[in-house]
Amino acid sequence: MTQYKYDVTMSCGGCSGAVTKALTKLEGVDKFDVSLEAQKVTVESATLSESEILAAIQKTGKTAKVAEQ
């Protein structure tokens, strides 16, 4: 299983809720954590690529990028 980290601009609970909903619906996501306070999203998946997950987050309308390690 691979862990991916993203910086996501979220200003409220609705923003983090939209990201949570998108990741819940995305097949192949094993585990995830959305932190509104830290503006970070961590996703674990054995089957999805970093770019597939990023695209799903960006479809919520949020500004997102791969976090620098």
Word description of this protein:
By secondary structure, this protein is α+β, with helices and mostly antiparallel strands. The chain has one domain (2-66): 2-Layer Sandwich (Alpha-Beta Plaits). Helices cover 32% and strands 33% of the residues. The protein has 2 helices and 4 strands, in the order βαββαβ. The chain has helices at residues 13-25, 50-58, and strands at residues 2-8, 29-35, 40-45, 64-66. A 4-stranded antiparallel β-sheet has the order 2-3-1-4, covered by helices on one side. A hairpin with a 4-residue loop joins strand 2 (29-35) and strand 3. The longest helix has 13 residues, at 13-25. The chain is globular. The protein starts with a strand and ends with a strand. The model has no long low-confidence stretch (mean pLDDT 96).
Ordered list of secondary-structure elements with their pairings:
Layout: E1 2-8, H1 13-25, E2 29-35, E3 40-45, H2 50-58, E4 64-66
Antiparallel strand pairs: 1-3, 1-4, 2-3
Q: What are its keywords?
A:
single chain; 69 residues; alpha+beta; Alpha-Beta Plaits; four-stranded antiparallel beta sheet; 2 helices; 4 strands; HMA domain-containing protein; chaperone
Q: Structural class of the secondary elements? A: alpha+beta
> Low-confidence runs (pLDDT<50, min 5 residues)?
none
Strand order of the largest sheet: 2-3-1-4
From the spread of the alpha carbons, the general shape counts as globular
Our Rg estimate from Cα atoms comes to 11 Å
Measured distance between first and last alpha carbons: 17 Å
| The CATH class | Alpha Beta
Strand content: 25-35%
Please identify, by name, the CATH architecture: 2-Layer Sandwich
Helix content: 25-40%
Overall pLDDT level: 96
Task: Specify the number of helices.
Answer: 2
